[in-house]
Design a protein that fits this description.
By secondary structure, this protein is of the alpha/beta class. It has three domains: 163 residues, 2-Layer Sandwich (Beta-Lactamase); 165 residues, Reverse transcriptase/Diguanylate cyclase domain (Alpha-Beta Plaits), CATH 3.30.70.270; 194 residues, EAL domain (TIM Barrel, Alpha-Beta Barrel). It has 24 helices and 22 strands. Strands 14, 15, 16, 17, 18, 19, 20, 21 and 22 form a nine-stranded mixed sheet that branches. The longest helix has 52 residues.
C-alpha cells in the first residue's frame, strides 16, 4: 500500500523549492547566455564600426587610391586575423576586363609567402579565373577553403597548399554596379564562412569604391582641363606645360635637343563652309588621328638608335592649328623628315560623311638648339615659320630663322601703324590709265591704293594689302577706296570726260562679307557717276572659290549698272561652264603672261587663247603690265582691246592724271580741258 505525503509536509515543500530553484537556475543561465551573446554581438558590432570608421577616415585622408587600399588591407587583416592580403585592379581593354595584380600587399608572415606573392604579381585574372576572377564575375564577396571542390579553379592552389594556407576570402570594390578592384585575403587556419563578415566586407567595398570614384572624377576634371574635347589631344595648356619641361631639360642636359612643329591646315575654311561645320569637325578629328598615327611610326622618328621611344606630343591649339613636340632629336633632319611625312599623309583624300575632301598643311619648325628659354617665344617662332610656309605657296614646311624674326617685327609694326593710316591721311590713290593699243587714248583708269608712312616711306601694296585682309581692315579701307575713286571719276566726267571709266579692285573678303552690294549702291548714289562707268575687278581665284555666290552678287551689281572684270585671268582654275554663266564684261590678262610675250612662244599662245576665249564669250580684254613696244605690238596684233602699263603711263596722282586727260583732250579736241 502506497502512502502519499501530505501537500503541506516538509518533504513536499522541499521538492517544490528544488523545482523552483532548477527553473531559476535555467532562466539565469539562459539570461546569462543571452546577455553574453548580446555583449559579444555588441562588441563585434563596435569593432566593425571601428573598422569602417578607420577605413573611411583613411580613405578621406589618402592622397592616392593606392594609399587608401593599403590601409584597408592592413585594417581588414588585423580585424579578421588573416595574415595575408592583396589588391588587384580592373583593367579594361575594349569590352573585356582583366584583373591586374599589384604590388600592394599586407603580409605578416615575415617573408613566408614571398613565392605566392611573386607568382600572383605575374598573373592576370580573367572572369572566373581563381578567387579574384570569381569575385569579378559575381560582383559579390567570396569565402572558401582550399579543400573544397570549388577550390579546383584556384590556379595558385598547389603553391598555397604547400605554404600551409587553408582558407581564402575576397570581396569586390564597387563603383555603382561596376567592379573596379578586388581585395583578397589568405589564412593558415581553416575558417568557417561568416555572413556578418561578408556583409561587412561588402560595405567596405562600397566605401573604397567611392575613393576610386572620387579619383576618377578628379582625373576627368584634370583630363578635361588639359585636353581638347573634340580630338582628345592635349590642348594649349598641356602643350605649353610639356614645352616648359623640355626647355628645362635642354638647359640641364648637354646635347639634348627637341623641336616644335606648328601645323595649320590649308583650305580648312573652304571645307568647313562648303560641307558644313559637322564635316569640319570630322576633318579635324581625322587630321588628329593621322598626325598621331604618323608619329607612331618609330622608324621615322627614332632617336640615336636608343631603346626608349621618344616622348612626342601632339596637341590641338584650337581651330585648325596643331602642334607637335618632337623629343630627343638627333639633328634638324629629324623634324624635317617628320614634316615631310605629315605633309604626305595629310595630302591623301579625307572621307567626310560620304563626301571626299582634299586639304594640305603648312608647317613651321623651331629648334631648341636656338637657345630658347621662354615657351611663348619658341611657339611664336614656330608659328612664324608656318606663316612663311603659307605665304610661300602652302603645302610645305619651313624652318624658323632670324630673317623671319626681322620680317615679323616689321609686320607687327605695319599692323600697328596700318590701323591708324587711314585716319592719319597716310593712304591715297594713284590712277593708272587704261588705253587703246592702237592710238594710246585714255579710256579709263584703275585706282591703285598707296601708303606713304611718315617714317618708313612708301610701303608696297604687296606688303600691306594682304595684312589689311588678315587683320580685318580691308572692308573699311576698300569702302574708302571705292568712294574716293568714284568721286574723283565724277570730277573728271564733269570736266568733259563723260565716257571715262574707273576700275576698282575688290578683295575676296569684300565679296563674301555681305556688304558689297549695299556699299556700291550708296557710293553710286552719292558720287552720281555715269551709269556703266564703274568697273569692279575681282581676281579669278576669289570668284571661283564660290562661283554660285559670286553669280548672285554679280547679278545684283549688274542691275545698278556696274561692269565686272575678271582680274589676273589665267592664274586661277576657271572652268568654261562657270565662266559662261558669270555676267562679267572683261577679262584681264595677267602681267606674268604679258611680260616678254614677244620672247616666249608659250606666253604668246596663252594670251592668244585668252583673247579668243573673250571673243567667243563677247567680252573685252585688257592686257596689263605692258612695258615695251614689242609687247604692245604683239598684243595689238593678237587683238587685245585695251592695255595698261609703264609703256604708256605709270600710276599717276589725281593731279597728274587730270593733266594727262587735259593734254589728250587738247590733242584730240583743241581748246578742250579735263582737270
Amino acid at each position: 500500500m502506497t502512502t502519499t505525503e501530505p501537500a503541506d509536509s516538509p518533504q513536499a515543500e522541499i521538492a517544490r523549492l528544488e523545482r523552483r530553484l532548477r527553473r531559476a537556475t535555467t532562466a539565469r543561465i539562459e539570461a546569462e547566455a543571452i546577455a553574453e551573446s548580446g555583449l559579444r554581438d555588441l562588441f563585434q558590432r563596435k569593432q566593425e564600426l571601428v573598422l569602417l570608421e578607420s577605413i573611411a577616415a583613411a580613405a578621406n585622408a589618402a592622397s592616392t587610391v593606392e594609399d587608401a587600399m593599403r590601409h584597408a588591407l592592413e585594417a581588414v587583416c588585423h580585424h579578421a586575423r588573416w595574415p595575408l592580403g592583396h589588391l588587384l585592379l580592373v583593367q579594361r581593354t575594349g569590352d573585356s576586363q582583366l584583373l591586374d595584380s599589384t604590388a600592394i600587399w599586407h603580409d605578416d608572415s615575415g617573408g613566408r609567402f614571398q613565392t605566392l606573392r611573386t607568382l600572383t604579381e605575374s598573373l592576370q585574372f580573367g572572369h572566373d579565373m581563381g578567387l579574384p576572377g570569381r569575385v569579378l564575375s559575381t560582383a559579390a564577396p567570396l569565402w572558401d577553403n582550399l579543400g573544397t571542390p570549388d577550390a579546383s579553379a584556384f590556379p595558385r592552389l598547389p603553391l598555397a597548399v604547400g605554404l600551409g594556407l587553408s582558407s581564402f576570402f575576397g570581396f569586390p570594390v564597387m563603383v555603382a554596379s561596376e567592379v573596379v578592384a578586388v581585395l583578397e585575403f589568405f589564412s593558415l587556419e581553416l575558417q568557417t564562412p561568416d555572413q556578418s563578415m561578408l556583409r561587412l566586407m561588402a560595405q567596405i567595398g562600397t566605401q573604397l569604391g567611392r575613393v576610386i570614384e572620387r579619383q576618377r572624377a578628379q582625373e576627368r576634371l584634370l583630363h578635361d582641363a588639359l585636353h581638347d574635347p573634340l580630338t582628345q589631344l592635349g590642348n594649349r595648356r598641356l602643350f605649353l606645360d610639356r614645352l616648359q619641361h623640355y626647355l628645362v631639360r635642354a638647359a640641364r642636359v648637354p646635347g639634348y635637343q627637341f623641336a616644335v612643329l606648328f601645323i595649320d591646315l590649308d583650305r580648312f575654311k573652304a571645307v568647313n563652309d562648303g560641307l558644313g561645320h559637322e564635316a569640319g569637325d570630322l576633318l579635324i578629328v581625322a587630321t588628329a588621328e593621322r598626325l598621331v598615327a604618323a608619329l607612331r611610326q618609330t622608324d621615322l622618328v627614332a632617336r640615336d638608335g636608343g631603346p626608349d621611344l621618344p616622348d612626342d606630343i601632339v596637341a590641338r591649339l584650337g581651330g585648325d592649328e596643331f602642334t607637335i613636340l618632337l623629343d630627343n632629336i638627333a639633328s634638324a633632319q629629324t623634324p624635317i623628315r617628320v614634316a615631310e611625312r605629315l605633309l604626305k599623309v595629310l595630302a591623301a583624300p579625307f572621307e567626310l560623311a560620304g563626301q571626299q575632301a582634299f586639304i594640305s598643311a603648312s608647317i613651321g619648325i623651331a629648334l631648341s638648339a636656338s637657345g630658347y628659354t621662354d615657351v611663348q617665344a619658341m611657339l611664336r617662332d614656330a608659328d612664324m615659320a608656318m606663316y612663311h610656309a603659307k605665304q610661300n605657296g602652302r603645302a610645305r614646311w619651313m624652318m624658323f630663322d632670324q630673317a623671319m624674326q626681322v620680317t615679323a617685327m616689321r609686320r607687327m609694326q605695319l599692323e600697328r601703324e596700318l590701323r591708324q593710316a587711314l585716319d592719319n591721311a597716310q593712304l591715297f590713290l594713284h590712277y593708272q590709265p587704261i588705253v587703246t593699243p592702237h592710238n594710246g587714248v585714255i579710256c579709263g583708269f584703275e585706282a591703285l591704293l598707296r601708303w606713304r608712312h611718315p617714317v618708313l616711306g612708301m610701303v608696297s601694296p604687296v606688303e600691306f594689302i594682304p595684312l589689311a585682309e588678315e587683320i580685318g581692315l580691308i572692308g573699311k579701307i576698300g569702302s574708302w577706296v571705292l568712294a574716293q575713286a568714284c568721286h574723283q571719276l565724277r570730277r573728271w566726267q564733269q570736266a568733259g570726260a563723260a565716257a571715262l571709266t574707273m576700275s576698282v579692285n575688290v578683295s575676296a573678303l569684300q565679296l563674301t562679307d555681305g556688304r558689297l552690294v549695299d556699299l556700291v549702291k550708296r557710293v553710286l548714289r552719292e558720287s552720281r557717276i555715269t551709269r556703266g562707268s564703274l568697273k569692279l575687278e575681282l581676281t579669278e581665284s576669289a570668284v571661283m572659290a564660290d562661283p554660285d555666290h559670286a553669280m548672285a552678287i554679280f547679278s545684283q551689281l549688274k542691275e545698278v549698272g556696274v561692269r565686272l572684270s575678271l582680274d589676273d585671268f589665267g592664274t586661277g582654275y576657271s572652268s568654261l561652264s562657270h565662266l559662261r554663266r558669270l555676267p562679267i564684261d572683261t577679262l584681264k590678262i595677267d602681267r606674268s603672261f604679258v611680260s616678254q610675250v614677244n620672247l616666249h612662244a608659250d606666253k604668246r599662245q596663252i594670251a592668244q587663247v585668252v583673247i579668243m576665249l573673250a571673243r567667243a564669250l563677247d567680252l573685252d580684254v585688257v592686257a596689263e603690265g605692258v612695258e615695251t613696244e614689242e609687247e604692245l605690238h604683239i598684243l595689238r596684233e593678237l587683238g587685245s582691246d585695251f592695255v595698261q602699263g609703264y609703256f604708256f603711263f605709270r600710276p599717276l596722282g589725281a593731279e597728274a592724271a587730270g593733266a594727262a586727260l587735259a593734254a589728250q583732250a587738247a590733242r584730240i579736241f583743241p581748246g578742250a580741258t579735263a582737270t
